[in-house]
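User: quick one, sequence for these C-alpha cells?
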C-alpha cells in the first residue's frame, strides 16, 4: 500500500495528529495535489498560540473559550462531550491544523474552566445549550465555522441548528455523536449515538 493511502494510515496516527490534518493530506493526494513536506505522523509536536476568551451566557455564566490560528483562516469550532473539556481536542489544537484553520474550543457549562452552576435547571433547557454555542461563536468573532461535535457536542449542534438554522455555519461534523434523546415520563430511556 502506498504511504498516505487510507489503509496505511493507522487509527492511532489519525487520532494523534488530528483527524482533519490526516483527511486533508489524504484528500490532497487523491485529487492530484501535493502533500506537504511534513508527513502527517510528524505533525503532533507543533504548538499553537492560544488566546483565552470568556463568553458570557444569557443566564450570566462564564464559558472558557480558547482560540488557535490566524483569524483570517477558515474556522472550525470543536465541541466536546459530557464529562470532558476543550482539552479533549489538544491533539487537534497542537497540530498543523492551526496553521491552515482558525480553531476554537470551549468548555461547556458545568465543564472544565467554565462556570458550574449547582442547580439542575441550569442544564435542563435545550434552548440554553443552543444559546451557549451561539454566544461562543459571537465572543470568538466566528464568521461561518464548521461545527464539530463529539458525543454530547453533536446533540448541542442539533439544538443550535434547530434554533438558529444553518446559515451561519459552513458545515457540521459529528464524531461518535449523540443525535437523539428519548424521554418517557421524565426518565431517559434511550440515547442514540450517530456512527
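Assistant:
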Amino acid at each position: 500500500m502506498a504511504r498516505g493511502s487510507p489503509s496505511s494510515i493507522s487509527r492511532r496516527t489519525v487520532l494523534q495528529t488530528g483527524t482533519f490534518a490526516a483527511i486533508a493530506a489524504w484528500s490532497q493526494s487523491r485529487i492530484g495535489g501535493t502533500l506537504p513536506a511534513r508527513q502527517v505522523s510528524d505533525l503532533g509536536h507543533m504548538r499553537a498560540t492560544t488566546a483565552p476568551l470568556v463568553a458570557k451566557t444569557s443566564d450570566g455564566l462564564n464559558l472558557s473559550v480558547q482560540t488557535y490560528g490566524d483569524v483570517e483562516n477558515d474556522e472550525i469550532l470543536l465541541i466536546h462531550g459530557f464529562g470532558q473539556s476543550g482539552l479533549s481536542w489538544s491533539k487537534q489544537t497542537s497540530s498543523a491544523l492551526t496553521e491552515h484553520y482558525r480553531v476554537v474550543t470551549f468548555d461547556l457549562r458545568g465543564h472544565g474552566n467554565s462556570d458550574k452552576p449547582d442547580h439542575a435547571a441550569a442544564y435542563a433547557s435545550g434552548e440554553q445549550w443552543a444559546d451557549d454555542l451561539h454566544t461562543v461563536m459571537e465572543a470568538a468573532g466566528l464568521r461561518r465555522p464548521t461545527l464539530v461535535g463529539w458525543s454530547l457536542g453533536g446533540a448541542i449542534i442539533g439544538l443550535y441548528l434547530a434554533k438558529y438554522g444553518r446559515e451561519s455555519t459552513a458545515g457540521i461534523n459529528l464524531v461518535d455523536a449523540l443525535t437523539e434523546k428519548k424521554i418517557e415520563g421524565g426518565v431517559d430511556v434511550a440515547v442514540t449515538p450517530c456512527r
